[in-house]
Design goal:
The complex is a heterodimer of chains A (332) and B (259). Chain A has 332 residues and is an alpha/beta fold. Chain A contains twelve helices and 15 strands. In chain A, the strands form three sheets. A six-stranded mixed beta sheet of chain A has the order 7-8-9-4-10-11, sandwiched between helices. In chain A, strands 1, 2, 3, 5 and 6 form a five-stranded antiparallel beta sheet that branches. In chain A, strand 13 and strand 14 form a beta hairpin. The longest helix of chain A has 17 residues. Chain A is elongated, with a radius of gyration of 24 Å. The two termini of chain A are 42 Å apart. With 259 residues, chain B is mainly alpha-helical. Chain B has one domain. Chain B contains eleven helices and no strands. In chain B, helix 3 runs antiparallel to helix 6, helix 3 runs parallel beside helix 7 and helix 7 runs antiparallel to helix 10. The longest helix of chain B is centred in the first third of the chain and has 30 residues. Classes of the chains: A alpha/beta (332), B mainly alpha (259). The interface between A and B is medium-sized, with 29 and 27 residues. The complex binds adenosine-5'-triphosphate and magnesium ion (MG). The site of adenosine-5'-triphosphate (ATP) has 13 residues of chain A, from strand 2 and helix 1. The site of adenosine-5'-triphosphate has 13 residues of chain A, from strand 2 and helix 1.
Chain lengths: 332, 259
Amino acid sequence: MLHAIETMEITKKFESITAVNNVSISVKPGELFGLLGPNGAGKTTLISMLSTMIEPTEGRATVWGFDVEREAPRVRESIGIVFQDTTLDDRLTGRESLDLHGRLYGLDTKTRKMRIQDVLSLVELSDRADALVKTYSGGMMRRLEIARGLMHHPRVLFLDEPTLGLDPQTRLHIWEYIKTLNKAEGVTIVLTTHYMEEADHLCDRIAIIDHGEIVALDTPEALKDMLGGDVIILELEKPEDKSRLCEIYKKNGTAKIVSEKNGEIFITVKNGEHQIPHILYLASNAGVSILAVSLRKPTLDDVFLHHTGRAIRDRAATEVEQVGYKIRARRK
Amino acid sequence: MVKATLNRAFQTVYTMWLREMLRFWRSKSRIIGSIATPIFFLIFLGAGFSSSFQTESGSPFDVSYLAPGLIGMAVLFSSMMGGVSIIWDREFGFLKEILIAPVSRFYVALGKAVGGVTTAMIQGLLILIIAWLIGIKYISIIGVIAAIGVMFVSGIGFIGLGIAVASKIDSHEGFQMVMSFLTMPLVLLSGAFFPISKLPAWMNVLVYSNPLTYGVEALRYFLLGKSVIPISLSIAVIIVFAFAMIGLGGKTFENTKVT
Ligand SMILES: Nc1ncnc2c1ncn2[C@@H]1O[C@H](COP(=O)(O)OP(=O)(O)OP(=O)(O)O)[C@@H](O)[C@H]1O
Ligand SMILES: [Mg+2]
């Protein structure tokens, strides 16, 4: 098969809002694909269309070769999904949740028993399997949902914000499960996130989505490379030397992009650490004295900023959202 | 092929039934609460009625008259609740887990109905037994078995109605509306608590177009051996109602949306 997922100019409109606009992407079998974007970018909407929960307004999409509109039942058999909001019944135990799921997907008794053991030990919930979901922590619920999504051996697993609102330690854990699944079991995974590190750490390829449109799509490395490389920042003793030094670097061809701001010079180069000696050599040759040098590797934050002109999110938003998540969890 | 499809349908129904049973088993306070109400009715309403009506008419009020009505009420409440609980499934997200599964939604709805009706019958049966312990006499064992059948059929009808309503409502505020505007009038306009033979004409229309009336009448016939409406008519009405509502509920549920 050529593509695990393929969308062709898929669009979703809600009344006045265009949540997903003309998106054409394809995901290869076995790939770990990330959708990275800020709140309201359209990540969930795109996943909802791919998982047959809502119908596209325009365009077409296939999952594992099946059309999401015309062959919805076949698509459903082929996928597993962990929704953004929890979809557990808190009056059931973990094991019962998995068992009922297995039944709905037509697994026989023996297979169910085996799978339950497997997925429970994968997410390290075996010892709490017979406790009511009501008594689970947020991280445990998330892990149980991942386990449930895997029960029936899906070809494609969708994870909508799998680590939203979890503490850093749990997040690292879940990252490990996701990697294992993808590498060891070969499950194609599509995950959405607005955590840069998550996308960077996990994904083979990332689509950056903003206002319902894909603004960039490539491997994390390539996305960062597109910015031209690392940034070396020089702090000068005498600010008046700035423009002279900039000219030298530009003429010399050391760097593609040189800029200055607040008495500092920013030089964008490939392989920053290897360029520093040469750059300092040029400076001392010109008789400019340097107070400090620092090297910054580009992050996906920079990539996002480059493509949208905005930072993906500020700290305050993170906090607000975590509170929201807790309230949602409590309400149950 | 046909066998596989049937097998899958059965699996789906059974899975949904199983979930209802697991939940029911865990909510013991709900079970106790739901049979306590009719029992209080039976004891206190019965005592109140018999002392006040005795003096008026001369002949003593028969408390056993209330039992079928109360069983009918319990079946109505718990089957409506069973259907309407889809609203909670929606609010707490579990509905998505069901709707994303590669199974027929009609059978999902049917499974939910069978689960709900099982709980409704357990409650109806408990009241039936408690009323008997209190001293109410039923005409025969056959009658009691037939009454259980009536509970099942009318329970299916009301749960279908509940599912249809819940599939259209997307918040728990809607639940209150259903309870006030559907369940209460159904109970009060059913003859569960009063004889339907001497009603004013305007009320007659409402009472006779209420499916619960026929359920209660059928229960009365099988448990006590007397009813105003002929038993064949009562049975025909509740069976037609059950098929119609489960069809409606299943169809509406197939088109329900979650976001
Ligand atoms: N059912 C709906 N009705 C109307 N508008 C909707 C609906 N669902 C989503 N939207 C709108 O579509 C846009 C995209 O929403 P979506 O949930 O896909 O974003 P997201 O990228 O998943 O965001 P988040 O990171 O907050 O989960 C938003 O503007 C949202 O308000
Ligand atoms: Mg989302």
